[in-house]
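Homework help thread (please don't just give me the answer)

Our assignment gives two proteins as sequence + structure token strings and asks us to describe the second one. The first is just a warm-up. Here they are:
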Amino acid sequence: MRLLLSVLLFAGLCLSKPAVVGWTKLQSPIQNLSNYQESGLKHLWDMFVKEFSHIPTMQSFQNFASNVARMWEHLKQPSSFIMGINKFSAMSVSEYNKYLGYRYNTSKMSGIIPRHSYRKLARYAPLPESVDWRWKGRVTKVKDQGQCGSCWAFSAIGAIEGQYQRAENKLVSFSEQQLIDCSFNFGNMGCNGGLMDYAFTYVKEAGGVEREEDYPYVSGVTHEANEACAFQSSKAVAKVTGLIDIASGSEEVLMEALAFNGPISVAINAAPTSFMMYHEGIYDDPACKGDSSSLNHGVLLVGYGKENGIPYWIIKNSWGSRWGENGYVRIKRGNNLCGVATAASFPLV
């Protein structure tokens, strides 16, 4: 049974007569919300420390208390999403920001070739009402970047995996570590950030990317790139011939590109605490700006749909399967929330 901490659990702990709820998410509606109780917070903190093998400090407890208070306030308001307790719950803003490694740089973008633009609606066929590439075998399992700002590498590899499956009808997990270790000369900075387009260009020039099993990921533990690139061209499997940049800001064009081409690398704004603590539902925090200067996290767009009249995007994150909806987040579609359509691209494989 999947263990997780949810803000719903906190609500259960704060009832005047606490029920035994364990670690599983409560399925029943929250009723009779009581006032914030210190005893409930301490109990929740003890459970968090045990569940996430956290080494407690006074500062981390203060961070935890602050984040729980934000979730408590959010729970009281009508919303299409729920915030929950996860591995980030005891982190400060600066600690959390280390996981956000997308580095948008307009001055360097023009030097990436060959590239093409996906700007016009082709409409070769009617646009599907919903798309989910997970069900069509183009998405590998959720991965965990760990304590390394390598989200850009996971986003790029996810797009390469999808395009390779499209071309070869085989789903293969490829190496993020290769991109982290070997693409410094193309503008990326290992665990200190990078760009998906730089990664695609590197793979093209290098002659391909290895399987994950041949070049496994270690930077999530070491928190840095390896001292030397260990890429072996003889083990290269997927080869990139170019990349497609999708018209910035157009969600309609992005929907079409996704529906007819497969998973797409996108950059988003993941800075809001509400995103850090996202648990489930359709994320719709209006504070999540979508301009290019707000982009800080590389992810993989794998689908879109609608629930209870609310349109949404389906996004694969790289924070492990215990964050969000088994590692995924649904973001409200329609007004470029969090910048989903601001900087999107995919490789040609």
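The one we have to describe:
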Amino acid sequence: DWRSKEPFMALGRPRLFFAVAAGAMDSMVAHYTPARKLRRDDAYTSGNRHGARPNRATIIYTSRLKEAYRDVPVVIGGIEASLRRFAHYDFWEDKVRRSALLDAKADLLVYGMGESPLLQLVQRLEAGEPFAAIRNIRGTAYASPYLPADAIGLLELPSFEAVAADKTAYAESFRLLSGEQNPGCARVLVQRHAKRYLVCNPPSEPLSEKALDAVYALPFLKAPHPSYSAAIPAYEQIRSSITTHRGCFGGCAFCANTHHQGKTIQSRSEASVLQELERLTALPWFRGSVSDVGGPTANMFGLSCGDKVAGAACQRGSCLFPKPCGNLVTDDARSSRLLSSARKVKGVKHVAVSSGVRYDLLERQPGYLRELVGHHVGGLLKVAPEHLTDRVTSVMRKPGRVSFERFRDAFLKESGRIGKKQHIVPYFISGHPGCTLSDMVDLALMLRRWGMQVEQVQDFTPTPGTLSTCIYHTGVDPFSGEKVYVPKTDREKGLQKSLLLYHLPEERKSCLIALKECGRESAAAELFGPKAQRPAR
């Protein structure tokens, strides 16, 4: 029970510190829909039960621990703390909040994946260093009344007070910190909060293949804590999956992975992945199907920058947008070989790739495409173009319509070559910054002409740490300074979603209203047939 300190006291006094994480998903994202309504369930809890953890769980857990053991240091980390480490726009309160470190009154914040900074912290404490003196570990942030005297190349961001009051200052702060995510060249970032400074050290160095293999060789049980009696939906979905790598260099505007795992791909060795597969087959519940072999983007396994010097100084947010970097090595030999080897592991009947692929990258990976289409699709391949009109995809930092069409044609051609009837299931986002009703009409017409029907549409949610959230809040692109249209009312966002679901009879009325509002009534005949009715006045 997180409402009182007594259950936390049952943990006992730790020897070094308490380590707090809110879970695998930001607690506010888990609890609320994009319309800010309470969800009825929580896939990350036993029994799919809503309310098992509090809103802003990092703050609440830290508060209870401080009540129970006031003199024990608390280290916060995980996705919630990591992406809220600076002053940030909070969609659920519609305001800019302070750093989670200051709101939680924690002693240290670990951002990113955390193994390296936590290990260094423990080792230095074990060696006798006082907790308060440990201030220079990469991948950590702390609060101080003073600027660090020994920091080289320190960069001060606009203060919390400035970004809370001025959207231009907020956009500038985001632009500055976004250029400091490369461990090879990142500086110490500071941001004043009233009379204190948030001091954020550069990101942790990427783990080597050997170090990453060592992490995944640890004796994880692949099981929930034994205190949970009911099934956990998210666990059921991923328990037979294998993580092959970390990081993503796609740089999609609505994704915060660059600010968490980074854009450097940290890959395990093929031997490490195959050994985990062998351990998986020995588990009593395993029936032969591996639900996923991949990472943030499956077809980035084994890829890297071909120029280490340039890569260490690079401040690009994406290696693919607006066009692929000339230094990007896209050889697919390792990833193709891994898929082929995974299928041959004794006890494995089928290996799926369900963590998503970047189809503009697949154009440079014919071997991986053949492996994927031939053995790892299962009839339906889920991809996430998110939108297909160039004006919107440019805001999203995603490939546009032409790239998707080339991928679709290549996928269908390869499927036909091997005698398989397979289809693409596209996923889209509605209500994203830059998207108008007319843009959604164009997208609906494309899908209609291609004979595609969308099954799922995700309404855009402004989550902490993303470029899209910055644009949503400020109305400008922080890198170009250009104004960007932002749909904000529930009504307009609902109409955008309806247009993508035009094929559903229950959405027709809303679609006709949307067509009228954006002056595209002539599109009704193509979407619904020549007898489509006008909306009731």
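TA reply:
I won't write it for you, but here's a hint about the kind of observation we're looking for: The mean pLDDT is 95.
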